[in-house]
Amino acid sequence: MTIDSHMHINSIVLNDENKYIDLINNNSDIESVINVGLDLKSSKESINIAKLNSKFYSSVGIHPLYIESQNLEILYDLADNPRVVAIGEIGLDNTKNNFNEQRKYLIRQIMIANELHLPIIIHSNNCNKQIITIFERYVKPKYGCVFHCFQPDIDDLKYLMNNGYYISFAGRITYKSAKKSIEVAKIVPDNLFLIETDSPYLSPEPLRGEINETANIKYIISKLSEVKQKDYKEVEEITKQNAKRLFRKMN
């Protein structure tokens, strides 16, 4: 059984959320999933889903593309729920011209995570070095961190590994253009990598262009098994134990 460490079951892309919840609940290969919040609304929805479905856990946070009119202090109450295992996804994204505001939100949310003894889930769109600068100049995550769907850069990777931060691999590692991601996968030690679907986004080969389901995590495990020269079940078990080590409330 495996853990999908990052997905979005209540995404607006999914017209029938209950259908996809049932697919996960009835899939004996899936132990659990972390349904990741993008703003206050989706974070609250994620908690409600986790309350009703034992395979589901939640994270709560404000994604850098959704920071308008979001009251960060509400995260304290949301994160108090036992099904909430992380603050995220939070981070920086260079596709919008509000970088200073994004940075303020990121710094404050890391501080909240530290106060609540929770790990953080980082979204970084071409901003690895800027986030590392924030870690060094302002505030570091004290209770763990994962760069989800990591955009490969070996220099950034060295910093993250030296600080014990996790790297998460999604469907992109199955793409023909994934040479740098494969290089990263070869370097990351066994105790610092996770797997995710980012469902319903980033479908792996051979399903690109389709709605991505958590069941498709098998393609990511298979690719990592090939790259790291390990048995499928071994990769499955390593990443499951890594997820439980980072997201301690799952234990």
For this entry, give a set of tags:
single chain, 251 residues, alpha/beta, TIM Barrel, 8-stranded parallel sheet, 9 helices, 8 strands
How would you explain this protein's 3D organization?
The structure is a single chain. The chain is an alpha/beta fold. The radius of gyration is 17 Å and the shape is globular. It has a single domain (2-250), classed as TIM Barrel, CATH 3.20.20.140. The two termini are 15 Å apart. Strands 1-2-3-4-5-6-7-8 form an 8-stranded parallel β-sheet. It has 9 helices and 8 strands. The chain has helices at residues 17-25, 40-52, 74-79, 99-115, 128-137, 154-162, 179-187, 217-228, 232-246; strands at 2-7, 30-36, 56-60, 84-93, 120-125, 145-147, 166-169, 193-195.
CATH homologous superfamily annotation: Metal-dependent hydrolases
Number of domains: 1
Order of H and E elements: EHEHEHEHEHEHEHEHH
What is the helical fraction, as a range of percent? 25-40%
Task: Output the CATH topology.
Answer: TIM Barrel
What count of helical segments does DSSP give? 9
